[in-house]
């Protein structure tokens, strides 16, 4: 997996030095990283206690962007929440839409036409491409590669967002999926453009990787940092690239085979050491697998309707019951839990946000490392505060 | 994977005193859930995690649900004799079901790649900080989600290592995801008191001030 042999994990003194009577020598320093700090990717705070430069305690403080999305969704119709799911993880609105649509379809037993399934896969994989590209840009920016790599990433992202805009009317807040299909069909011209983008993306990835994969600074700052053991990763419910970097083979696309993912030939990249370098590498390899899925989907997409003719947009009332649906979003497992009581609004609407739960082990990753490493570790978690705080 | 009935039978054999109820789910997804008493939920969770056939090592989703007091209507048929003619009539009985709060856990297995098993526990009533049992000692992934359940629903989860508010700020009063929560009217102050604002403000006054 790693380009060079990984360094052994660093052995830092975790506890502050104490005298013979047990009194700490010197003073501990408590600092507040954030909420307005460029490395926190939003409004997020870490209460850090330092011994010199070494972290001895770290508590994440969240909720600055909390607007009680779940309560709002309980007071509006099922379809009314669809545009609001765009605002959860505002980088990946298409996958948020899909997770919600999937759960409602599960709740009401709605079928989805073939062509719509293919369009959903294409949109989700394009979303994964742009999310991982941008994340790597942000992540190296956190390490001091200011500007240039992020601009390369954003240049490519903009091409994908142009595709989203031409089909849904919005770059980021797409609001494109509906229960039982997608809102409107894609044109043959659009498919040709998407094909062109996919064909050229591999070359961009090669260039992008040439900047980082064997970069000395990146290796020194990421290998052996923020290591998570396999048992903890599973027990702490981590998902997505964070989980697979520790070597656990669990991808909801392979396990649940939701949509039509069972038809595509792709691999799940796995890490060995569970450190930040593995998380970076997993994302790069995942993008290459996404390109494979996209090529197959763009080749095989059939013609036909994109909306189930019996699907009801207005006056939609599923029968009483409950359903939990989940998909593999770029950041991890995104789940929705809905309880219906037969009325037009959901009785209970819950989002299982992947980046919120991935933050559970932030302290475990940072203990014993330098304060400057916490920035890189947080960057490797891939959080979006719209989703963490909801 | 085993059906809920099989899991129930094995659990009741292994965990002493465990009473498990299988709750129906009428929607097409049809994931039925196991309702466990708060006294045994920790033992049940440990069994579900460690049992070699289940190995539910991944607790995906933890959430609270608020079920307020509701009138449950149940219909039954009975035969009556009116003027010597036997006829069947339908009678409706209304019973008041007292409210409770619920914690729902969705469990999967990363090792055996199956799931979900839905586990539920209920509090006795809807009091402020009604007690239930935390499953963070079994699955570390519950830590933040159970803090969120405490924060938004006010379920005090005993045994949680660090039960504090997480999304709302410290010192916030009330539990915003409860069905009967009234949001304070001074969040967004409106200088012209029209009827809607006044009516909302009145809900906060004690009864004697209201007159």
Brief summary:
Chain A is an alpha+beta fold and 390 residues long. Chain A is built from 15 helices and eight strands.
Account of the protein in words:
The complex is a heterodimer of chains A (390) and B (211). Chain A has a three-stranded antiparallel sheet with strand order 1-2-3. Chain A is built from 15 helices and eight strands. Chain A is of the alpha+beta class and 390 residues long. The longest helix of chain A has 29 residues, at 114-142. Mean pLDDT of chain A is 87; it is low at 1-13. Chain A starts with 28 loop residues before the first strand and ends with a helix. Chain B is of the alpha/beta class and 211 residues long. Chain B has helices at 4-14, 41-50, 142-153, 195-202, 207-210, and strands at 20-23, 33-36, 58-67, 70-82, 85-97, 100-109, 114-122, 130-133, 155-158. A five-stranded mixed sheet of chain B has the order 1-2-7-6-3, with helices on one face. Chain B is flat and about 65 Å long. The model of chain B has no long low-confidence stretch (mean pLDDT 84). Classes of the chains: A alpha+beta (390), B alpha/beta (211). Chain A binds chain B through residues 62-63, 66, 68, 70-71, 106-109, 232, 234-238, 248, 250, 255, 318-326, 333, 335, 337, 339-340, 348, 350, 352, 356-357, 359-361, 389-390, and chain B through 25-31, 57-61, 63, 65, 104, 106, 110, 113, 116, 118, 139-145, 152, 165-169, 176-177.
Write the layout of secondary structure elements.
The complex is a heterodimer of chains A (390) and B (211).
Chain A (H helix, E strand, L loop, with lengths): L28 E5 L11 E7 L2 E8 L7 H6 L7 H4 L7 H16 L5 H29 L5 H21 L8 E2 L2 E2 L5 H25 L3 H7 L7 H6 L5 H5 L6 H4 L20 H25 L20 E9 L2 E9 L7 E5 L1 H5 L3 H5 L4 H11 L3 H5 L1
Antiparallel strand pairs in A: 1-2, 2-3, 4-5, 6-7, 7-8
Helix pairs in contact in A: 3-4, 4-5, 4-11, 4-14, 5-6, 6-11
Chain B lengths: L3 H11 L5 E4 L9 E4 L4 H10 L7 E10 L2 E13 L2 E13 L2 E10 L4 E9 L7 E4 L8 H12 L1 E4 L36 H8 L4 H4 L1
